[in-house]
Each structure stands twice: as structure tokens, then as C-alpha cells.
Design brief:
heterodimer; A: alpha+beta; four-stranded antiparallel beta sheet; B: mainly alpha; 82% helix; elongated; disordered N terminus
């Protein structure tokens, strides 16, 4: 009985352990350029080239908090995906860049990168730079990763 | 001041940097937008704009060449290379189209010009046809007027000579005395010389008018000869009557000259009209200007036809014979011209018979079925002529 139990436990461990360790690498989920996506009346945006769509209403609520007018006036968001598959989202009048990752039927916020607490960005733009995402903001270039601003990235 | 300038320059440079800062997505968007715009312009390009368009495509390609790798990844589905290839294909197609359009435009211009010319010509033709119709009507009216005029001239000529005759009969002047002023006054009063001159002038004018039909010329010749004969009768009497008046005697000389001129003109017109009769039917009778030439040329023509010097087919020979014998000689020359010619000793019975005999022989040649008949006819004619000759010889043994 003890032996049987040991065999079952060992088999299960091997089975699940094998599954968990299987990884396909390397991967490249990067989008070559950012997508400038229009927000429709329901708050949905659609990246047609990648057949990806999601609702940005909660994001606008989070960014503008008490300022519902700014949330209502937002017409576009800029989105780019890095090599690892993280989504970087921002928009004009935002002070932050939001990093999202895939979840089950959702995009879940992974990190919020604060760009400027005082002044909102006028016209932020992303560029794909493979090892990082470049943010253009009023002539300044900032290197972003899923964990925040890369050291020495702000130029 | 120096600080201010440096600051201004730095701000300007900064502003340029900000405004020139494009994200990759904007490069991609501008590329796609530029591509769409160029494609649209290329599709609408014509021969005038295609050269500029080719330069724009080249500039576009050069502008984005440095982003080739990025655009190959980001522009879906064609990337930079395929997009540029599509653009260049479209450019080639548009160049060919523009070239064709240029040719088409040239052809269209030619067609427009030609159709314009055709329209103009059609209008001109329509106008000419209209004028022709009007002229035909005018010509009919003119011919009628000419006939009327001719008739009236003839009547007046007769009246003038009747008047002169009456005057001379009335005063019984076979030998008019120069002192008989009463008779001269009467001649003066009735404008005899003026009327004769006017008659001659009117006849000469009539001769040169356009409305005269070809067949009228024998009649005109007839009239001229009659007038000339009348004048030769009264001219002598008038000359005697005017012996005392040098001016009037001179005037009579002038009338003589005028009538001689009219004689020449009527003869010339007569032969011209007769020549035209043959020419109109395309009969190659050599031109003639007097009765002798007329007779000789007709005989030569018949001989040539019988010898078939032109080497034409039998049907052509028959056609020529029919035209000559029936349409011209039989229908016009013989009944209308020959009698007048004979009346004024321009043509003889023997000449007419000679031509008729030749025509009979010619017919026998072109219509062999009747050969025997025509030989008999010819033999009969010869027999009659021989009989006449012998008869004349018998009556006049000295000849």
C-alpha cells in the first residue's frame, strides 16, 4: 500500500512537474510600432492588426480619478507590446504609463510607471527598442521596462 | 544682446527638435498615408503629371529607405519592400497609361480636327447643293429668257429690214438722189442705221450668253446668214442714199465690219458646239474648225473604229457604234446641223451619203448578222451613184 502510494505520488510529481517545466523559448511578442487606438463610446479600443481589443474605461477612471471631464475627453490611447508580451499603455494628458500583462480573459495591471507627478504629458509616444520601450515626451526620451524607468534611461 | 541671440537660437532649435520628433508609429502612419496618397495620384496621373509623379515615388522611396527594416516588420501585410514594389508597379502601369492617353489625346485631337473639317465640308457641300438647285432654277429661267430674247431679236431684225424695204419701196429709190433730203430725213427719223447696229450687237451678245442650248447654234447660224443676206441687199441702197454724208457712209462701213465679225463668231461657236456634241458622248472624233475638216475627221473616225486602232473589245466597238450612229449622228447631227450646213453650202448631199454608207459598213462589221444586207445596201448605193453618173454623162456628152 505504501509502495503503491509512493508510485502514484512519484508519477503525479513527474507528470505535473514535467508540464510546469515545459517552456517555449525564446519568444518575441513585440509589436514593431505602437498602436494609436481610438476609444469608442463604450470605452473599447481595437488593435486591428493584432486582432486585440479591450476596454479602457477602468484605466481612464484610474488615471483621471476625480477629473471625469478629462476621462470623457480622452479619445485615443497609445499601446505597444514588448518582447515579453507586456502591454504599455498611455495617452495624452496622462501622467503615467501603465504596464499590463495577459490574465484569464483580462489584462491585469502589472506596474504603473509614473512619468511626471506635476505635469501631464501632452503627446506621449512609444517606440519599440527590443530591450526596452522608448517613451517620447516633449522632446525627452525615456527607456521603460515592465519594472519601471530603466536606469540612465531618461535623456 | 549676445545672450539673447544665443537663447533665441537654442529655443528655435529646441522647438524644431520637438516638432521633428516622430515616433515609429508615426513614421509607419506617414509611410502608409504617403503610399495611399501616391497610389491615388498615380491612378489619376496623366501625361502632364506622370514625370512629377515618378520623381515623387523616388523621393518617397529614398525618404523611407532608412526605416526599411522597421517598416518591413510593422507595415502589414506588405512591409516596406512589397509596398515600394507595388508603388513602382503602379508607376509603370500609370506611365504606360499616360503614354497611351497621350496618344489617345493626339488621336482624339486629330479626330476632332477631321470631323470639324468634315462638318465644314458637309456644310459647304450642302450650301453648294442649295446654290446648285437655285442655279438650276435660274438656269431654266435663263434658258427660257434666252429663247424669248432670241425670238424677239429675230422678230426685230425682220422688222428692221421690213422697215428699210418699206422706205425704199415707198420712195421708189433704186437710184436715190443725194439731193432728195426728204428721203434721207425719213431714214434718219426712223433710226435705220442705229437699229441695224443694235441688231448686230444684240445678236453678238446673245451668242456669248450662257443659256444657249447646243442645238440652238444651227438656228443662230441660220439667222446670221439671213441677216447678212438682207444687209447685202439694203446696204448698197443705204450707201447710195448717204453718199453726201461722210459720217453716215463711214457708219455703213462699220456695220459691214460688225456683220463680218458676227459671221466669224457664229461660225466659231457653231463648230465648237458641234465638236462638243461628240466630246460629250466620249467619241474620239478629231477636232474640226470648218466643214472640210468636219467631213474628213468623221470619215477618219469611222475608219479608225472599223480598223479597231484602239484594240477595244467587241462590246466596246458595238457601244461606240451605237453612240455615234444613233445618239449623235442619227439623232442630232443629221436632223439639226446637216440641213443648215447644206443650206449654206457647208456640206453636200454626196458627203452625207458617203458618211451614211460608211456607217452602214461599220454596222455590218459590228453586227455580222446583217452583213449580207449591208453589202446589198452598199451595192445598191454604188449602183445608184453609177447610174446617176452615167445619166449625167449621157445628157452632157462634152463632159
Amino acid at each position: 500500500m505504501k509502495n503503491t502510494l509512493s508510485i502514484v505520488i512519484l508519477s503525479m510529481a513527474l507528470l505535473f512537474g514535467g508540464c510546469a517545466s515545459l517552456q517555449l523559448q525564446p519568444v518575441d511578442f513585440s509589436w514593431p510600432a505602437e498602436e494609436i487606438l481610438d476609444i469608442n463610446s463604450d470605452g473599447m479600443v481595437m488593435a486591428r492588426q493584432y486582432n486585440a481589443g479591450f476596454n479602457v474605461k477602468p484605466l481612464l477612471s484610474k488615471e483621471f480619478a476625480s477629473d471625469s471631464t478629462s476621462a470623457k475627453n480622452a479619445t485615443v490611447v497609445r499601446v505597444i507590446r514588448d518582447k515579453a508580451g507586456f502591454y504599455y499603455i498611455t495617452a495624452p494628458k496622462f501622467k503615467n504609463v501603465y504596464v499590463f500583462q495577459h490574465a484569464d480573459g483580462a489584462l491585469s495591471l502589472s506596474y504603473t510607471i509614473s512619468i511626471s507627478q506635476e505635469k501631464a504629458m501632452d503627446d506621449p509616444k512609444f517606440n519599440q527598442r527590443n530591450t526596452y520601450i522608448e517613451l517620447l515626451n516633449n522632446g525627452a526620451k525615456v527607456q521603460l521596462t515592465k519594472g519601471g524607468i530603466q536606469q540612465g534611461g531618461a535623456k | 544682446m549676445r545672450k539673447f541671440i544665443i537663447l533665441t537660437v537654442m529655443l528655435a532649435l529646441g522647438a524644431m527638435t520637438v516638432s521633428a520628433q516622430r515616433s515609429d508609429s508615426e513614421i509607419k502612419r506617414d509611410f502608409e498615408k504617403g503610399y495611399k496618397s501616391l497610389m491615388k495620384d498615380l491612378r489619376n496621373a496623366d501625361s502632364a503629371s506622370i514625370t512629377t509623379m515618378a520623381q515623387q515615388v523616388q523621393s518617397f522611396k529614398e525618404e523611407y529607405q532608412k526605416h526599411q527594416a522597421f517598416l518591413n516588420k510593422s507595415v502589414f501585410p506588405d512591409g516596406f519592400d512589397e509596398t515600394i514594389a507595388k508603388l513602382e508597379d503602379q508607376l509603370k502601369e500609370s506611365q504606360l497609361l499616360a503614354e497611351s492617353q497621350g496618344r489617345i489625346a493626339e488621336l482624339e485631337a486629330q479626330v476632332r480636327e477631321l470631323s470639324g473639317r468634315i462638318d465644314a465640308m458637309s456644310n459647304e457641300n450642302a450650301m453648294l447643293l442649295k446654290q446648285l438647285d437655285a442655279l438650276k432654277t435660274e438656269m431654266t429661267a435663263l434658258k427660257k429668257k434666252v429663247a424669248e430674247l432670241q425670238d424677239k431679236i429675230v422678230k426685230r431684225d425682220a422688222a428692221v429690214f421690213a422697215l428699210v424695204d418699206s422706205l425704199f419701196v415707198q420712195y421708189d429709190t433704186q437710184r436715190l438722189s443725194s439731193s432728195d433730203m426728204k428721203k434721207l430725213t425719213s431714214l434718219e427719223k426712223n433710226n435705220v442705221l442705229s437699229n441695224i447696229k443694235r441688231s448686230v450687237n444684240d445678236n453678238v451678245t446673245l451668242l456669248s450668253s450662257t443659256g444657249i442650248d447646243g442645238l440652238d447654234f444651227p438656228r443662230l447660224l441660220d439667222e446670221q446668214r439671213k441677216f447678212e443676206k438682207n444687209w447685202s441687199g439694203v446696204g448698197k441702197k443705204l450707201a447710195d442714199a448717204y453718199t453726201a454724208s461722210r459720217d453716215r457712209a463711214k457708219e455703213i462701213g462699220t456695220i459691214d465690219t460688225m456683220i463680218a465679225g458676227w459671221h466669224s463668231q457664229v461660225d466659231e461657236s457653231f463648230w465648237k458646239a458641234l465638236n462638243k456634241l461628240f466630246a460629250d458622248e466620249k467619241l474620239s472624233v478629231a477636232e474640226f474648225a470648218n466643214s472640210e475638216e468636219f467631213y474628213n475627221n468623221i470619215l477618219r473616225f469611222i475608219d479608225d473604229q472599223m480598223n479597231n486602232v484602239n484594240g477595244v473589245s467587241e462590246s466596246e466597238q458595238r457601244k461606240t457604234f451605237e453612240t455615234f450612229a444613233y445618239n449623235v449622228w442619227g439623232a442630232k447631227v443629221k436632223p439639226v446641223w446637216v440641213p443648215v450646213m447644206k443650206r449654206y453650202d457647208m456640206f453636200t448631199d454626196a458627203q452625207e451619203s458617203e458618211i451614211d454608207t460608211k456607217i452602214s459598213l461599220w454596222q455590218a462589221q459590228v453586227d455580222p448578222g446583217n452583213t449580207l444586207l449591208y453589202i446589198l445596201v452598199a451595192a445598191l448605193v454604188i449602183a445608184v451613184l453609177a447610174g446617176l453618173y452615167l445619166g449625167m454623162k449621157k445628157r452632157n456628152p462634152t463632159a
